[in-house]
Amino acid sequence: MKIIRTPHSITVWSERLRREGVTIGLVPTMGALHDGHRSLIHAARLQCDALVVSIFVNPTQFSQTEDLSTYPRPITRDRALCREEGVDVCFEPTAPAMYPDGFQTTVTVPAIARRWEGTARPHHFAGVATVVTKLFGIVRPHLALFGQKDYQQAALVRRLVHDLSLGVAIQVRPTVRERDGLAMSSRNVYLSADERRVAPLLSQALQAGKQMIVGGILDAATIEQRMRQTVEQAPDMHVEYLAVCDPDSLEPLPVVVTRAVLLGAVRIGSIRLIDNLLVNRQAGKSRTTR
Ligand code: PAF
């Protein structure tokens, strides 16, 4: 496995392979890789001739009060996981290489970024949209894979690729969960033992919402109230949002007709957890994805 640090070097590498007809896959990450990332890398490996994992803790998607300086960076372990999964290149740029002096462009996707995570983290999605656009320009992949755990992020990436005609196929893969339902996340390592014990209440709340929809209770306010009650069994868990939304626009739905996404964010102590669940009544069953 190669480790490439400069944008220019990986573009040269990628362009050479593209000329030879090789298909290139990209899994963009901020490192601290877990089994959710592993499943993305594994799926990419099966579909692409050459596979790049980018590891870049992108400063522009963190606010002043967030955990940029303490974000976990276990680079030796991350590289080992990439080697095990047959990754061809780990792209590990520095921040000055990605944002050199004079950098001034920002990509925004205002309607998708406005609500939910966008309310709690107002600059986050502009940082994500800009770095993802830049990674696509540098690595020039045919296919890029994202986890459904960050549902709003995935919707935003799909939108910007379509709007800017970037020519990258986007695949969103199911959330990988711990045995008790907690969605895997690089930030789960911050949870204390007590916080970890109650953390699965978020996924349980979404499951409760799904069961209501499957059972024919379609009024969003009623579903949201039940989800909130589930989370609030733990006095230390604070709901930021629990919402029944249109899966494409992410706008709130008053009533579920066919498809919905249940979106949730809670705070336990200083940790925020997010999760989501897709529900499809039309198929006669609901589908649980990442
Ligand atoms: O999901 C992430 O890890 C990041 O938001 C991403 C897509 C790698 C952009 O920095």
What's the topology here?
Blueprint: E1 2-4, H1 7-19, E2 24-29, H2 35-47, E3 50-55, H3 75-84, E4 89-91, H4 95-98, H5 110-114, H6 117-120, H7 124-139, E5 143-147, H8 151-163, E6 169-173, H9 193-198, H10 201-214, H11 220-231, E7 237-245, E8 259-268, E9 271-280
Parallel strand pairs: 1-4, 2-3, 2-5, 3-4, 5-6
Antiparallel strand pairs: 7-8, 8-9
Bound molecules: pantoate.
Residues 28-30, 58, 61, 128, 131-132, 150, 153 line the site of pantoate.
Name given to the CATH homologous superfamily of the largest domain: HUPs
Strand content: 15-25%
Shape: globular
The tally of structural domains comes to 2
Radius of gyration from CA coordinates: 19 Å
The major β-sheet equals: 6 strands, parallel
Specify the helix fraction band. Answer: 25-40%
Low-confidence stretches: none
Distance from first to last alpha carbon: 28 Å
Would you tell me the overall average pLDDT?
96
The number of strands is: 9
Instruction: Please trace the helix and strand order, writing H or E for each element.
Output: EHEHEHEHHHHEHEHHHEEE
CATH class assignment of the largest domain:
Alpha Beta
Trace the largest sheet across and list its strands: 1-4-3-2-5-6
Q: State the secondary-structure class.
A: alpha/beta
Bound molecules: pantoate
Fill in the CATH topology of the largest domain.
Answer: Rossmann fold
Helix tally equals 11
